[in-house]
Write a structure and sequence with these properties.
5 strands, elongated, single chain, alpha+beta, two-stranded antiparallel ribbon
Length: 141
């Protein structure tokens, strides 16, 4: 009776597949998180730019600028969630050099919380780097 050594290799393919699958899923979810951060950041930048553009050509009204960022219109519609869950506390609107010929409007989104897909960083992450845009005002009463 001959004994084959094939029995010692049982399960090798299963172990290799498990190791590769875990590594692949970690990289895939990490890439998805990276793409999600890029999407959120670019979306926030675009909303800040639209808000500062609106504020630069209209009379200064911080509430209207905030609504432009949150809802893409100057008034808050009933029953509509703000864009990406941005709250008023995340938006700062200010006028620099008020009344001077160099008057500018500055809009920023600060302390926005990102939510990740990855199990190891699934909690929220607060971005301490603000998205800030500044434009000279064109509105002159």
């Amino acid at each position: 009776m001959t004994i084959h050594k094939k029995g010692g290799r049982r399960g090798q393919a299963l172990v290799e597949t498990a190791l590769i699958l875990v590594s692949f899923l970690a990289m895939l979810i990490g890439a998805m998180d990276f793409g999600q951060i890029l999407f959120f950041h670019q979306s926030l930048v675009e909303r800040v730019r639209s808000g500062v553009r609106w504020g630069a050509v209209h009379a200064f009204d911080a509430t209207s600028v905030k609504n432009m960022i949150r809802y893409n219109q100057t008034t808050a519609p009933d029953g509509v969630q703000p864009f990406l869950g941005i709250s008023d506390s995340n938006i700062t609107v200010s006028v620099l050099d008020s009344g001077a010929s160099t008057e500018r409007i500055q809009v920023a989104i600060v302390d926005y919380q990102f939510y990740f897909l990855s199990p190891w960083i699934a909690k929220t992450f607060t971005n301490n780097l603000a998205v800030v845009e500044t434009l000279p005002t064109e509105y002159r009463p």
